Amino acid sequence: MSNNNDVLLKVVDLKMHFPIYRGVFQRQVGAVHAVDGVSFDVKRGETLGLVGESGCGKSTTGRTILQLYKPTAGEVFFKGSNLVSLKSEEMRWMRRQMQMIFQDPYASLNPRMTVAEIVGEPLTVHNVATGKEIQEHVMHLLEIVGLNPSFAGRYPHEFSGGQRQRIGVARALALQPSFIICDEPISALDVSIQAQVVNLLEELQEQFNLTYLFIAHDLSMVRHISKRVAVMYLGVIMELANRDDLYLEPMHPYTQALLSAVPIPDPVADVNRKRVILEGDVPSPVNPPSGCRFRTRCPIAEKICAESRPEFREVKAGHFVACHLVS
């Protein structure tokens, strides 16, 4: 989608299918099409927001990019190297430059390890530092994310959800990565804490020139932090555009439906705007619809939508849409 030298990450037709086995002999009888042909790029220093309803494949996309799941098909280029074809030792070196902040701050931290051990573990695993160097680095990281260095000897259960997520951020920063996948880092936090964590991520991005893939449900928060936004539905990307273009002029029917559900603080505008109500349920990723994935719930679907899958094309500068009926 872009050949510029400033592209840090490029994902090409990425697929991740999880096989389904049944019977005594564990024969494969199908597959869950969690990610089914996703393409996008992320430029250096920017934040790309990835939004969509639960189960659409957002988190699986992030984990597959980092090769935590081995993709079924497709390519992932990071700084020009295809991660899919790298050997284990080469991938181990690449992992220093790519990190992840996980969704659940309660489940992503080992309860048997102290904060110092959790934050310092990446340094030990990758042999970046030893002994006193690790201790000094951990103290510095805790200060950066707004935690008291004296907390280093405590365990995760002694912290609140927001503090635990800050520990997760410190761990992600330990190896000085250039790219971080934020997998719904605020969804498990109180609303009052969410803004603090997002502000911290923005400050760190400016300080360390970080690049984010920000996965979230909250469309208002995504608009705040992201420069570009990709909208995902049932394993495929429906629309990708600059933040303002997407929110002011959504082209895909699914994006229009999503944005019409976002509360706005203006009572007059809220009464006058058109609310798009989607009928039916999300189809199963085990047996997705033919053609356009959204056609079974789309209010403007036509015959061609069932016959062929729409091309993910650039409708206008920087605005990509996967829809037969958008020109």
Provide the fold topology.
Blueprint: E1 7-22, E2 27-43, E3 47-51, H1 58-65, E4 73-78, E5 81-82, H2 88-94, E6 98-101, H3 115-125, H4 132-144, H5 161-173, E7 179-183, H6 191-208, E8 211-216, H7 219-225, E9 228-233, E10 236-242, H8 243-248, H9 253-260, H10 267-272, H11 303-307, E11 312-316, E12 319-322
Parallel strand pairs: 3-8, 3-9, 6-7, 7-8
Antiparallel strand pairs: 1-2, 1-4, 4-5, 9-10, 10-12, 11-12
* CATH H level, superfamily name of the largest domain: P-loop containing nucleotide triphosphate hydrolases
Order of SSEs: EEEHEEHEHHHEHEHEEHHHHEE
The CATH class of the largest domain: Alpha Beta
The CATH topology annotation of the largest domain reads as Rossmann fold
- How big a fraction of the residues is strand? 25-35%
Helix content: 25-40%
How would you describe the overall organization of this protein?
The longest helix has 18 residues. The protein is α/β, with parallel strands linked by helices. The strands form two sheets. Strands 6-7-8-3-9-10-12-11 form an eight-stranded mixed β-sheet, with helices on both faces. Strands 2-1-4-5 form a four-stranded antiparallel β-sheet. The radius of gyration is 21 Å and the shape is globular. Helix 4 packs across helix 5. Strand 9 and strand 10 form a beta hairpin. It folds into two domains: 212 residues, Rossmann fold (3-Layer(aba) Sandwich); 94 residues, no CATH class.
